[in-house]
Amino acid sequence: MSTHQPPMQQAPAAAPGGPYPGYTSPIPVVRTHLGHALASEWTKIKSVRSTLWTLGVFVLLVVGIGLMAGALVESNSDSETLSGENPLSFGFFGLLLGSICIITLGVLTTASEYGTGMIRTTMTACPSRARVLAAKSIVFFAVAFVFTLATSGFVAMVQASMLESTGARTPTGGDWLKATVGISLYMALLGLLSLLIGSVIRHSAGAITIMIGVLLAPLVLALFMATESLAKLREWLFEYSIPNQLSVFYANSLSESGPSGWDPLWIMLGLTAVVYAGAYALLQSRDV
Amino acid sequence: MIELEGLTKRFGEKVAVDHLTFSVRPGIVTGFLGPNGAGKSTTMRMILGLDRPTAGDVRIDGTHYDRLKDPLTYLGALLDAKAVHGGRSAYNHLLCLAQSNGIPASRVAQVLETVGLTAVARKKAKGFSLGMGQRLGIAGALLGDPRILMFDEPVNGLDPEGIHWIRNLMKSLAAQGRTVFVSSHLMSEMALTADHLVVIGQGRLLADTSMADFIRANSRSYVRIRCPQRERLRDVLHQAGITVVEAGGGALEVEGGKAEQIGELAARYGLVLHELSPQQASLEEAFMQLTAEAVEYHAQAGPEPAPRDWGAGWKEA
């Protein structure tokens, strides 16, 4: 800490034209755009330990539980057990737990900046709040999508070959697409929703708690609603709970009615879009 | 050039910044002075568009901060040293800032060198001392080689060598034709660096003057006297129409430059003087007088209970 010379070497600059004279830097002036913000957010997300932890645990959970479930089913079945079933559906358990990691990383992407005060630096460097939110969303969505796609794709391939001898049907192209790209889009949207909640709540622990509540509460509430009068609500909570929506991608929904096919993706897309609009409006109106 | 016009910020009932109007000109160091909670940081946040003004306007060379196309190469700011993610290394912190404004990555190493953090560039910011954090914040402000620089309490936590360095840094930045706006609650610090002075208290503008004018107007002169026959001297001075005040430690003080007159009076009445010295009040005292009415958090002199709204406004500090 001993190099204390003046910071820049130029001689005092001649005042440039225009009504506001002053110093002119030799550094080329660049009109900033979304690309710059994306590069910055990419550096940010890969340069903190929490990303490594959450994604590391995510990969462990999805691959570990997926393969364990596959192995367990395979060793306990004969050639008829799974007749006609979709062999990819055992990826569900790993992803259900893995969603907690994606939620945590999503929340941390925004809320940790409020916790550390970094957000003031971020917003000073990029005063367009819309651009900051967009850059964070795009970078996070891409990371979450790629990681889920890679892990769920790997698990699906291993399971499909593992369970060939159990009478399970050969997955169709549609099965494959839903169990890999479909579920990955859904998980990335769930993470993006968490990122937006983090931006609204501005508190990591608070936002993570809320998102885990969103993940689990409908299912747990439904368990308690055993009375006849609440049967409709109970069924609705079951069907539209996030775990059930996840299972729809494997065509093994807990019930026969409710969302089916690609419905969960459209539901999550709509929900995320609404929350995005709300988070953006709040970000614009609130002080940093 | 930073121009504030009737800038006002309310947090609920509390007025943090109250119709501030002044400009910060290029080529000089402008000191922004006020006691804790005067609204300095809030004003700086509004300049950067972080806080939305309740009323009034602030422009950077005629433009709102959030309309600047190249914010970091136009204005560099050190807001507070804690505005850093502790888990990120100094290098990565500056790199993500550089990327967000298309500043070449080579500048990161340059500014780290300038602030003397090269050796700890790969260390996480949370392990930094207050002084190192301050240097990292200054590095961030210098990153874009901007024409306007804003520092909020930059000497906080720096050692004497660091304080000396930042003083010279600010002067050399201003000498290059840049606008330098620096806040402090220490008059003595500003007296050494600032050419121009803006003083606020409870959000209101108290002074907007050149440093030289401020010194001329506010350096009170008085005479300090010590005398073994104090009561006798008091009577003598009283009869001569001179007001005396107790100054503690057995000394007396008389306003104005009346040393000769007092000496002659003492001689005439045969009084022994142990001290008769003309004094200049420090700028610190002048500053405290100026802001006395506007200080928000007085230390309690006696064991009185804290006022009921104690700490109600600390967030605005």
Defining traits:
A: 288 residues, mainly alpha, 68% helix, B: 317 residues, alpha/beta, 4-stranded antiparallel β-sheet, 33% helix, disordered C terminus
Overview of the structural elements:
The complex is a heterodimer of chains A (288) and B (317). Chain A is mainly alpha-helical and 288 residues long. Chain A has helices at residues 34-46, 49-75, 92-116, 118-125, 129-162, 173-201, 204-224, 231-240, 242-248, 263-285. In chain A, 68% of the residues lie in helices and 0% in strands. In chain A, helix 2 (49-75) packs antiparallel against helix 3 and helix 7 (204-224) crosses helix 8 (231-240). The longest helix of chain A has 34 residues, at 129-162. With 317 residues, chain B is an alpha/beta fold. In chain B, 33% of the residues lie in helices and 26% in strands. Chain B is built from 11 helices and 13 strands. Chain B has helices at 40-47, 71-74, 90-100, 106-115, 130-142, 160-175, 187-193, 211-218, 230-239, 259-268, 283-291, and strands at residues 2-11, 14-24, 29-33, 55-60, 75-78, 148-152, 179-184, 196-201, 204-210, 221-226, 245-248, 251-255, 275-280. In chain B, the strands form 3 sheets. A 6-stranded mixed β-sheet of chain B has the order 5-6-7-3-8-9, sandwiched between helices. Chains A and B meet through helix 1, helix 3 and helix 4 of A and helix 2, helix 3, helix 4, helix 5 and helix 6 of B.
SSE blueprint and pairings:
The complex is a heterodimer of chains A (288) and B (317).
Chain A: H1 34-46, H2 49-75, H3 92-116, H4 118-125, H5 129-162, H6 173-201, H7 204-224, H8 231-240, H9 242-248, H10 263-285
Helix pairs in contact in A: 1-5, 2-3, 2-5, 3-4, 3-5, 3-6, 3-7, 5-6, 6-7, 6-10, 7-8
Chain B: E1 2-11, E2 14-24, E3 29-33, H1 40-47, E4 55-60, H2 71-74, E5 75-78, H3 90-100, H4 106-115, H5 130-142, E6 148-152, H6 160-175, E7 179-184, H7 187-193, E8 196-201, E9 204-210, H8 211-218, E10 221-226, H9 230-239, E11 245-248, E12 251-255, H10 259-268, E13 275-280, H11 283-291
Parallel strand pairs in B: 3-7, 3-8, 5-6, 6-7
Antiparallel strand pairs in B: 1-2, 1-4, 8-9, 10-12, 10-13, 11-12
